[in-house]
Amino acid sequence: MEDYGRFLALLASALLVGFVSVVFSLVWVFHYREGLGWDGGVAQFNWHPVLIITGFVFIQGIAIIVYRLPWTWKCSKLLMKFIHAGLNTIAMILAIVSMVAVFEYHNARNIPNMYSLHSWIGLTAVIFYSLQLFLGFAVFLLPFAPVPLRAALMPIHVYSGLTIFATVIATALMGFTEKLLFSLRNPSYSESPPEANFVNCLGLLLVIFGAVVLWMASRPHWKRPPEENAKILRPIGETPEGTEAESTMTDGSNADKSDLRISSEAARKQNLKLDEAGQRSTM
User: Fold this and answer.
1) Among 63, 144, 151, 198, which one is least packed by beta carbons within 10 Å?
2) What is the largest CA-CA distance in the chain?
3) pTM here?
């Protein structure tokens, strides 16, 4: 791998910043808010930021860069697909639970739902993430989609995944601001109380984490190299693209090598005969 040391430094930074972000979210809800619970109160709402940061940001970020880990390149591509899909599934479940916590809290307090830009973009991100996960399973994991379809959808799959990830972080930042504006009264958010500064630092951590993940995912020289003789999951009974051409080229190459070997063997035998004839004439 090119720039292996830089990759390891960025990976360690991403994991550290992501883990610290999760810790910050827990400190926020336990130290400055009412902790965690499931009783329709504020403690139930607090599951929302914790699960979003843990699943929709941190775990999703790891799922994005898992293909880039060089020590996994010796593992089969199918195994890495399952790991990638599994991490995204966990992130999706945590995001759904966080949404349920918010809607139940709002309904219990008679607070309107889906009126802010934060809620609009957040729900949109969850919907598109669900579609992304479903299409990823159907097209890239199950052995039914034709290879040309996979090749055509792969750039879209990658781009939409990175876009959703960046959108989730932006939505989380909007949520932080909205929550602090509504919750901080005396002192207000504009007076920069300790909780406001703490949550602002949490937002900076998410931006740093997202920037590092997106940088690592966009470097072409850190991409997983193509597997040689890999058993790629293909539609049943279908020959992958290029296989026939490669087979023809291989057969032709083998035939050329066989002809060359036969010619070399004939020349060697002819030389032996000449040598024997020369020896007999000398004797």
Assistant:
1) 151
2) 119
3) 0.79
